[in-house]
Amino acid sequence: MSAIKNQNEQIIEQGLMVSKKNEVVVRDPRVIDLFEQLRLMISGGQRLTDNEALALANFAIKEGLDPMNGECWLLKSRNPDGTYKIAGIMVGIKGLRRKAQEALDKISPGNFFNISYKDINPPSNEYEIAIEATLNDSVSTRQYIENRQLAYQMMKDMPGDKYDAINKMVGESGPKWIGYGFYRKDEHNISMDKKFTPRERAMKRAEASVIRQRFNLNYNYRDDNGAVIEITQGEKAQSQHDAPPAMTFEIPNEIISTAAEKPSTRSSDQTITMPRPMQPEDLKTWLNAEVKSITAPANDRQRALLRGVLEGCFGGTYENPEAMRHMVTNYLTGNQSVRDLTDAWVLCLLNRWLKPVKDSGGLYRADPIANKEANLIAEMLRDAQDSQEGEEYADIQ
Questions:
Q1: pLDDT on residue 13
Q2: Which of 307-340 are b and which e, b meaning 16 or more Cβ less than 10 Å from the residue's Cβ?
Q3: Which of 24, 99, 103, 111 is the most exposed place for a label (fewest CB within 10 A)?
Q4: pLDDT grade, residue 234 (50/70/90)?
Q5: What is the end-to-end Cα distance of the chain in Å, rounded?
Q6: How far apart are CA 53 and CA 90, in angstroms?
Q7: Are 283 and 373 in contact (CB under 8 A)?
């Protein structure tokens, strides 16, 4: 039975791989299942040709969208001879909302975004309605608040107007994104006006603009006539989305009050300058000299950041990044767990060595040179471990 089944599977696979004239060859069973559902379950599905339904099904599966929930649909344009052709696939406002929430969920569960709307004066007489949409999200807002709190702790002992300095560092208000939606006077359509009012359509266009900006979504969004609605330079200029990532946590010496600062044990002969990336032993020597000059306290958030950034150096390379983090931390500091590190060691590894910055996906990554140095240590420790295991195996034999 097994041999017959395998032979049948081979015949089916060979059949799917044979290209036939005017036919679309589909191998993904998910696409086939969705293709069959589209013809039965979406409005106008019976009018779709096989190629059209397959194109929509393939796009939906690839992008993770649900066409039966109105997240995407097929656009057609009329040819001069009266026939129709595929003009593209439209990702609707439901699809954009879904991709926006997915992007936030990837950072951590429970994140959200909020959009507010207000009517504005149309830019010219051709427009009947103009809407401005403003988007804020929990990730950017939380980071902005943390940055302000950290900046205040860094500057609380400074003389003068510390709030002006804080505003220059992190901005006067939290990050926001702005988009505009317009409804032209020539867009009135009896059929469309029954489904959505002109103001509702302008609001959806503003929402689509601001979501595409914030989450860097490259889907085209179109008006009722099929024209692509581009994001304007004016919208980009209004959006205050250049807020800094999480600030580095080391408090500059010139900001710490001399009365509160403990005497430093660092001397000129402890200053070590070496080319980067350093070899493991050189890096260990340098960090052990650097840590002696740090007297500032570290908090739990900094310890958590250190764990995540150091483990991130080994993600995709080692099966157990956490175990590798323990080994590297132990090699450099004598302690495996970040929990057991002194405050000075936490700040030394985080700010003097790793210097993390936030990537485009919202994750903190180590400086590329520090990442390479961490992996040099990991390779050295792994080779030593493999060598030891080989010797133990030889003894057993």
A1: 39
A2: bbbbbbbbeeebeebeebbbbbbebbbeebebee
A3: 24
A4: low
A5: 45
A6: 14
A7: yes
What mean pLDDT value characterizes the chain? 76
Task: Give per-residue pLDDT as tens, 33-73.
Answer: 776 777 666 766 677 777 788 888 888 888 889 888 888 88
CB 223 within 8 A of CB 187: yes
For 71, the token pair is 């997240």
pLDDT per residue as tens digits for the range 172-225: 888 889 999 999 888 888 777 778 889 998 999 999 999 998 988 888 777 655
* 243 CB-near residues (< 8 Å, 6+ apart): 140, 143, 144, 147, 170, 171, 174, 175
The answer to whether the CB of 374 falls within 8 A of the CB of 328 is yes
Q: For the chain, where are the E strands, in sequence order?
A: 72-78, 84-91, 113-119, 127-137, 177-184, 357-358, 364-365
Burial 101-132 (b: 16+ CB within 10 A, else e): bebbeeeeeebebebebeeeebeeeebbbbbb
Domain range summary for the chain, segments of one domain joined by +: 2-89, 94-238, 268-396
Distance CA 330, CA 133 (A): 51
